[in-house]
Amino acid sequence: MSKKAGALVVGAVLLVAVIAAAAVWLFPILTVKSFEIVGNDHVTAADVEQASGVPKGANLARLDAREAAQGVAEIPWVESATVSRAFPSTVHIEIVEHEAVAFVRDGDSTVLVDNHGKEFVEAEAPPEAVEITGHTDSGSPEMQAAVDAVAALPAPIREKVSALEVKDRYSLTFRTKDNKTIFWGASEDNKNKAIAFEDVLKLEGESWNISNPSLVTRR
């Protein structure tokens, strides 16, 4: 085949590719038929689909993934969302939900707080969320200190806690469901305090001080 003929063949192939791409973009050849949603524990798939703003039958090639992700991220439980195309006919949506580590009561309402200290939704508290009482003003240093302390505890341990009382950011006291009081002190060295916390749960005695996790004492 001559160079000229080869060039014509390549040109023809490119032209077909361009026409095909234009057709896919302009006409609903590849349409949305299904959604693949991952990461949702507290949000229903139906709510995620609706929030994305993408209807079934829409042209998948023209999907605005950023706009769809922004819509999903407006769901109170959703911390972040990523939307992508899964050709030929699926919209893939991956969400990261807020981790509800604590809650505060506001009158008759229960407000959930995530591991970053953000109050994100009024809802029934999950078992692993700890009630914070005392100085609980949203965004305050005391509240952030309390959230940091609670978040240091693994979820199965948080389920054994009934509340965390905040006098100030240097005076945090946990109460457990089996009537132990555990003085945490300031929100610092939280990783080691969490280890000490788990240890004293196994010991006899109702009142403990783990403000110095290297020197745990009964109160």
UniProtKB/TrEMBL annotation:
<dbReference type="InterPro" id="IPR050487">
    <property type="entry name" value="FtsQ_DivIB"/>
</dbReference>
<dbReference type="InterPro" id="IPR034746">
    <property type="entry name" value="POTRA"/>
</dbReference>
<dbReference type="InterPro" id="IPR005548">
    <property type="entry name" value="Cell_div_FtsQ/DivIB_C"/>
</dbReference>
<keyword id="KW-1133">Transmembrane helix</keyword>
<keyword id="KW-0812">Transmembrane</keyword>
<protein>
    <submittedName>
        <fullName>FtsQ-type POTRA domain-containing protein</fullName>
    </submittedName>
</protein>
<keyword id="KW-1003">Cell membrane</keyword>
<dbReference type="InterPro" id="IPR013685">
    <property type="entry name" value="POTRA_FtsQ_type"/>
</dbReference>
<feature type="domain" description="POTRA">
    <location>
        <begin position="30"/>
        <end position="98"/>
    </location>
</feature>
<dbReference type="Pfam" id="PF08478">
    <property type="entry name" value="POTRA_1"/>
</dbReference>
<keyword id="KW-0132">Cell division</keyword>
<keyword id="KW-0472">Membrane</keyword>
<keyword id="KW-0131">Cell cycle</keyword>
<dbReference type="Pfam" id="PF03799">
    <property type="entry name" value="FtsQ_DivIB_C"/>
</dbReference>
